[in-house]
Amino acid sequence: MLSERRLEVLRAIVQDYVGTEEPVGSKALTERHRLGVSPATVRNDMAVLEEEGYIAQPHTSAGRIPTDKGYRLFVDKLADVKPLSSPERRAIQNFLDGAVDLDDVVARTVRLLAQLTRQVAVVQYPSLTRSTVRHVELLSMASARIMLVVITDTGRVEQRMVDCPGPVGDEALADLRARLNSRVVGRRFSDVPRLVQDLPESFEQEERGAVVAVLATLLECLVEETEERLLIGGTANLTRFAHDFPLTIRPVLEALEEHVVLLKLLGEAKDSGMTVRIGHENAHEGLTSTSVVSVGYGSGDEAVAKLGVVGPTRMDYPGTMGAVRAVARYVGQILAES
Fold first, then answer.
1. What burial letters (b/e) apply to 181-202, b meaning 16+ CB within 10 Å?
2. At CB < 8 A and 24+ separation, what contacts does 199-208 make?
3. Does the pLDDT of residue 309 top 90, yes or no?
4. Which of 205, 220, 263, 271 has the fewest C-beta atoms under 10 angstroms from its C-beta?
5. Residue 227: pLDDT above 70?
6. What would the mean pLDDT of 135-152 be, rounded to a whole number?
7. How far apart, in whole angstroms, are the C-alpha atoms of residue 313 and residue 303?
8. Three-class SS of the chain
9. What is the mean pLDDT of residues 44-54?
């Protein structure tokens, strides 16, 4: 266990290195921070921190820089999440409030996160498998053609055309709409197939063809949309940190192109709390020089998807964590009100 004083020295080293991009020496630490001890004592503390693997000496520099282990301890014990200022919170709310639909919400969220954190922003679309049905609408387009519209609790809207084997009257369509909604509204999408499987049997023989066609399209829509989608923005921000990547930025860019990799990095949506993965904690080889900060968002207490940022390990963790958490909260509010 490190003493409180050595933890303070580590905190100061992380803060200075993130702020200056320069390895930190004992003299600079005592000048910039009120550590209450002499430079010689700080040098001794730094030697212990280096021996324990929390800091390292790059090349022949006299200063030290944090290691992945040092950043981990900083995030776990020393970092207070930095709250956003009132103007920043208002700017987030105003920007996101202007969104017209779910696609616009996700696109605006990516841009906002990238601007606030100056990192690469990643936003996962709400998954239908974790969403609930808000409403199913059936609209007559022609005598034997129906438009199926499915609206989720996260504001997602799915539309499909249904070709029926014969004409469907307004009364029959209204009856099907009512019975379908009575079974599925407020229920998880993953439960829908079970809830509607015997629905055709409750209709007259001549109406069953249309019911079967509508249900087939509904279930088809669910299968198609189980694939996870995400949006990335701010990749150009990485070029500002080119010197933070040991050899080249290329492996990072290649990893960011693989959505499966990013989905694994963000983690399961059900783990809605803040997650910070630092350096070698990221299993993908191309991302061992990066850190990922992610959190779940949703329209209620339960997360339906994740959002976060990817950047170099030399990251402003308190500020990034504060921004990611604030944006997730606002996106959740918008989904709840949509």
1. bebbeeeebeebeeebeebbee
2. 203/176, 206/166, 207/168, 207/172, 207/176
3. yes
4. 205
5. no
6. 92
7. 26
8. CCCHHHHHHHHHHHHHHHHHCCCECHHHHHHHCCCCCCHHHHHHHHHHHHHCCCEECCCCCCCEEECHHHHHHHHHHHCCCCCCCHHHHHHHHHHHHCCCCHHHHHHHHHHHHHHHHCCEEEEECCCHHHCEEEEEEEEEEECCEEEEEEEECCCCEEEEEEECCCCCCHHHHHHHHHHHHHHHECCEHHHHHHHHCCHHHHCCHHHHHHHHHHHHHHHHHHHHCCCCCEEEECHHHHHHHHHHCCCCCHHHHHHHCCHHHHHHHHCCCCCCCCEEEEHHHCCCHHHCCEEEEEEEECCCCCCCEEEEEEEECCCCHHHHHHHHHHHHHHHHHHHHHC
9. 94
pLDDT of residue 45: 93
At residue 214, what is the residue type? V
Q: Measured between alpha carbons, how far is 298 from 305 in angstroms, rounded to an integer?
A: 7
* Count of beta carbons in the 10 Å neighbourhood of residue 73: 20
Contact predicate 296/318, CB 8 Å:
no
- Range in 173-177, 182-186, 188-192 the model is least confident about: 188-192
